[in-house]
Design goal:
heterotrimer; A alpha+beta; B alpha+beta; C alpha/beta; B: alpha+beta; Arc Repressor Mutant, subunit A; 3 domains; 9-stranded mixed β-sheet; 3-stranded antiparallel β-sheet; 15 helices; 20% strand; elongated; C: alpha/beta; Amidase signature (AS) enzymes; 11-stranded mixed β-sheet; 11 strands; 13% strand
């Protein structure tokens, strides 16, 4: 199946990636080849088969509503690329 | 051309659990930025969510109170998008198997009973907060709110006016407070509404294009936004334009909305089942247990107040609108106050004070109100004095008995003391006296008024009247 | 006393420590000497933990005498350790120091383990050769021109070259077993849910598992005992009910029933690999194990299903790397949108970006049903097929990889070809089953071949027993001559 440049750009945008035009070409070819290989799944009849989202059959793994002490702010910010006044700093978000 | 307005609401309510939905951090409002956080709610690499059991219970409770079916099997899903307040770049929510569905809420709008459908209620996590720094070049991200549990309540597009939208929102809030799953403090953002609105020619079956206004956090703004948007769409259509499907931001101060900067990219959220969490199974038995644990609903109390206590429907409606007020009323009645009397005090003086001070809380108990009512019933103070006392109770927190005592507000029934005052008033008002004696019986009212004024309202009217009549008669006999 | 610490197993090291023939401190020092000598040729480590390691070794002297106490080991660099750099082999996490420790690692620390350092890997565990590491290539200790396998290449190479007594790796589609096979050591992936994933930087949530890489099967069971067990921080971890994986490990395998899928010995595997496997089958049959040929019809579909599922989950798991909270941040941005895309484009390597693109596509509107949902249905079928086999057989055997280690750079250009090398390992992750790779000889070039045993869910003990039976009767090859080591 053909993966157009437009598709690659659309997907790249969704994934917040910024490939160069050379990279877009390569990605388009790679994706075509790999997705083409995956087409073989279509030859398998899966009517009536349920999608297996979890390999184990467990449910209701829950915790009680108890407060646990939070981490010190210093630890939370310890790897921040940029911070100010105890908050993570990013370029202005325009709403 | 007559147009019909079609409105649907999506209400987000923060659940009042103590800890967050997927980690043990506190859900307390406020706090210095990033002090209610841990590696899980700040999405550090390698961290995993673990579901808070209370969130499921509260969501099911809310659903049952709104007549929904509760799913025996439901699961969480990832909703993927990028935004700085969303640290994982996905929100754990519910997509195709919400915990509650197919319910309804009855509202009383403009005297008419109307049923508003609830399409679904699902659980999800709240995002963080963005603060903008003063210089305008950056934004600051605070993750304290990240992971606070939310339920999203989606209504059917059953509302036909801004008032109905408002009434529905108020009803939902009341219900959530009754089942005690959310404190619904709108000013703290724990209850927010998105308004979806479209218009169509009256009588048409097809829906028009709808717009969405997000994150309205007061009933007033829900009403105003809906009203303005309906007008805008109608005007647009009448001028030959078409309504575009878009998200608009409502500016309540300016009283208008504007289109949000959109690159017309419909969000592709790429929902898929959350692999880090296992499904939620609720047996019929468990669901029944939760149902049985529901407290009395506002309409159930309404029945009781009107039928058993003989309160008029209008009053019962107002009192049961808020669970706090209803609880307050019942406390008073349990402490011995006559229901109608208690209701009058709530509907009159108390609601006036609450509005004036802009609070939802009455700062004393129903028992305290009962105490005041007894004082009046026993004749120790008059109704008028009662009004003054209740205001002081509200503003200073003192009890009725204390106020009456400290300020000497008790009704004076001592005949000796009153006789002197009656004499004083009689000698100072010869004309009224002679009017009365010459047949104008109404002049006694003026004299009574003067006596009450002299005693600053504290005289026992019955006793005063008896003394006054006796004295006047004896003058007449002279 | 002179020891070549490189050849130590856990049991051997523990015995010497217990007898006082070597101190924990000396042992740790000795390993750092080995690492110094081997780093240039093998390059297994990304970072070392000297100060902390020596502190940890003191715990042994102070009385912590658990089975793993005082024994030096190393951890794949995608498991968080409080205060230690955890890079996942990526520029994106180059300076990242987590303020918390992965549960599996913490359990080892509580047992007194000495952590020598963090091991090299394919970036974010995506790859089969460790060539995708941002920092360095790791070279196969058997032949430095060859890849060690991946993504836990550093872990396997370190154990094979004696730079750690054992290591922790992670396995999503074969990332413990394949490098173990390429490096001639034992690598085991437990049943999904056996070991907590808390603190393991996520690649594909429904497939990832942490497991041990060791010289012997018995060592593998010892490590599994320490790291396994339900963790309240991981909702997908389970209580397996098993407390001792070494139980019955030395028992005679006679009477067991094994099978080998015909698809596994079909075309596409190298003749030397085929020969070694056939010899192994001969060994088992002589030992009283029946080995029958069976059909595994879905073997061919597993890779496609695996790559869709793992890429889809990875595309979501890796979305958090945005230059805001931690990790790399691009210097080229003038607004938020550029911050996101430039950080992610510069911070991630090509393979990671390729898989993110694939995964995003597979989940996107209009394609979800055709790709992701379809893959999940195929997953059900694959699990059912295995369940069917396990009703009749105790374990499945076959080669771990279709070839032995290949030349560094040989497969770098062709991603699909690289993916096809996972054919024997990925279906195990898809079905959530346990599997172990145990060395079964060398090829004509002197490179190790790996035998893979796949077991029923939660039945690690059967495959450990069968693997141990093989290993105890067949010599363990090491890529170095035993040298006496002055300490």
């Amino acid at each position: 199946m053909k993966i157009s440049k437009d598709t690659v750009e659309y997907v790249a945008n969704l994934a917040r990636l910024n490939p160069s035009s050379d990279e877009i070409e390569k990605l388009s070819k790679d994706m075509e080849q790999i997705l083409g290989y995956m087409e073989k799944l279509n030859s398998l009849d899966t009517t009536g088969v349920s999608a297996m989202e979890h390999v184990e059959h467990i449910s209701n793994i829950l915790r009680t509503d108890t407060v646990v002490e939070s981490f010190e702010r210093e630890k939370i910010l310890s790897n921040a690329p940029d911070e100010q006044d105890g908050a993570f700093k990013v370029p202005r978000v325009v709403e | 051309m007559k147009y019909e307005i079609v409105i649907g609401l999506e209400i987000h309510a923060e659940l009042s659990t103590k800890s967050k939905i997927f980690c043990g951090c506190t859900t307390e409002f406020g706090g210095e930025p990033n002090t209610h956080c841990c590696p899980v709610c700040t999405s550090m690499p390698g961290t995993l969510p673990v579901m808070n059991e209370k969130v499921i219970e509260y969501a099911a409770k809310a659903g049952l109170a709104m007549n929904c079916s509760i799913a025996n099997f439901s699961k969480m899903d990832r909703k993927n998008y990028f935004y700085p307040d969303l640290p994982k770049a996905y929100q754990i929510s519910q997509f195709d198997l919400p915990i509650c569905s197919n319910g309804f809420v009855e509202i009383d709008s403009a005297g008419e009973n109307k049923t508003i459908g609830i399409t679904r209620i699902h659980m999800e996590e709240d995002a963080g907060k963005l603060l903008h720094d003063e210089w305008g070049k950056s934004s600051l991200v605070d993750y304290n709110r990240c992971g606070v549990p939310l339920i999203e309540i989606v209504s059917e597009p059953d509302m036909r006016s801004p008032q109905e939208a408002r009434d529905f929102a108020e009803k939902v809030r009341s219900i959530l407070q009754y089942v005690d799953v959310s404190d619904c403090r709108m000013q703290e953002g724990s209850l927010r509404a998105d308004v979806n609105l479209s218009v169509r020619p009256a009588g048409s079956e097809e829906f028009g294009t709808r717009t969405e206004m997000k994150n309205l956090n007061s009933f007033r703004s829900i009403f105003r936004a809906a009203e303005a948007e309906a007008k805008r769409q109608i005007r647009l259509i009448e001028e030959g334009g078409t309504v575009i499907q878009e998200t608009r931001r409502w500016d309540d101060d300016a009283g208008k909305s504007h289109s949000m900067r959109t690159k017309e990219e419909a969000h592709d959220y790429r929902y898929f089942p959350e692999p880090d969490l296992v499904p939620i199974e609720l047996s019929d038995e468990r669901i029944n247990n939760i149902k049985e644990s529901l407290p009395e609903m506002p309409w159930e109390r309404f029945e009781r107040y009107t039928k058993d206590m003989g309160i008029p429907e209008y009053d019962a409606g107002l009192i049961t609108a808020s669970v706090r007020t209803a609880d307050f009323f019942e406390q008073a009645v349990t402490a011995g106050a006559d229901p109608k009397t208690a209701s009058n005090w709530i509907m009159g003086d108390l609601m006036k004070l609450m509005k004036e001070i802009d609070t939802e809380e009455i700062p004393f108990s129903g028992e305290d109100l009962a105490e005041l009512i007894h004082l009046i019933k026993d004749g120790r103070i008059s109704n008028n004095i009662g009004s003054k006392v209740i205001e002081k109770m509200f503003r200073t927190g003192r009890k009725a008995v204390t106020i009456v005592k400290e300020e000497g507000l008790e009704v004076v029934s001592d005949e000796g003391a009153l006789e002197a005052i009656v004499d004083k008033v009689i000698s100072a008002n010869e004309k009224s006296v002679s009017d009365y004696l010459s047949g104008k019986k109404k002049a006694i009212g003026f004299l009574m008024g003067q006596i009450m004024k002299e005693t600053r309202g504290k005289a026992n009217p019955g006793v005063v009247n008896k003394i006054l009549l006796k004295k006047l008669d004896s003058i007449g006999d002279m | 006393m002179k020891f070549d610490v490189r050849k130590f197993t856990i049991k051997e090291a523990a015995k010497l420590l217990e007898k006082g023939e070597i101190s924990a401190q000396e042992l740790t020092e000795a390993f750092y000497d080995v690492i110094d000598a081997a780093d240039e040729s093998v390059g297994a480590y990304i970072s070392l933990n000297k100060k902390e390691a020596f502190k940890q070794s003191e715990k042994y002297a102070n009385g912590n005498k658990g089975t793993l106490a005082g024994i030096p080991m190393a951890v794949k660099d995608n498991m968080c350790i409080n205060g230690m750099k955890t890079t996942c082999g990526s520029r994106m996490l180059e300076g990242f120091k987590p303020p918390y420790t992965a549960t599996a690692v913490q359990r080892l620390i509580d047992e007194g383990a000495v952590i020598l350092g963090k091991l090299n890997m394919d970036e974010f565990a995506m790859g089969g050769s460790t060539e995708n590491s941002y920092f360095k290539n790791t070279r196969n200790p058997w032949n430095n021109d060859m890849v060690p396998g991946g993504s836990s290449g550093g872990s396997a190479a370190a154990v094979a070259s004696g730079q750690a007594v054992y290591a922790l790796g992670s396995d999503t589609g074969g990332s413990i077993r394949q490098p173990a096979a390429f490096c001639g050591v034992v690598g085991m992936k437990p049943t999904y849910g056996t070991v907590s994933r808390y603190g393991l930087v996520a690649f594909a949530s429904s497939l990832d598992q942490i497991g041990p890489i060791t010289k012997t099967v018995e060592d593998s069971a010892i490590v599994l005992n320490a790291i396994s067990g339900k963790d309240p921080m991981d909702s997908t971890s389970v209580d397996t009910g098993i407390t001792d994986y070494t139980y019955g490990i030395s028992e005679d395998p006679a009477g067991m029933k094994a099978c080998i899928p015909v698809q596994y010995l079909a075309g596409g595997i190298s003749p030397d690999v085929k020969k070694r496997i056939e010899e192994t089958i001969g060994f088992y049959e002589k030992s009283g194990v029946t080995v029958e040929e069976v059909e595994l019809k879905l073997a061919d579909y597993a890779i496609a299903a695996y790559y869709i599922i793992s890429s889809a989950e990875a595309s979501s798991n890796l979305a958090r790397y945005d230059g805001i909270k931690y990790g790399f941040r691009s210097e080229n941005f003038s607004n938020l949108s550029e911050l996101y895309s430039n950080t992610r484009t510069e911070g991630f390597g090509d393979e990671v970006k390729r898989r993110i693109m694939l995964g995003t596509y597979a989940l996107s509107s209009g394609y979800y049903d055709a790709y992701y949902k379809k893959a999940l249905k195929v997953r059900t079928l694959i699990k059912q097929e295995f369940d069917g086999l396990f009703r009749k057989y105790d374990f499945i055997l076959g080669p771990t990889a279709p070839t032995t280690a290949y030349r560094i750079g040989e497969k770098a250009e062709n991603p699909l070809e690289m993916y096809l090398g996972d054919v024997f390992t990925v279906s195990v992750n898809i079905a959530g089953l346990p599997a172990v790779s145990v060395p079964c000889g060398l090829d004509s070039k002197g490179l190790p071949v790996g035998l893979q045993l796949i077991g029923k869910a939660y039945d690690e003990r059967t495959i450990l027993r069968a693997a141990n039976a093989y290993q105890s009767q067949n010599p363990l090859h090491l890529p170095f001559e035993e040298v006496s080591h002055e300490i």
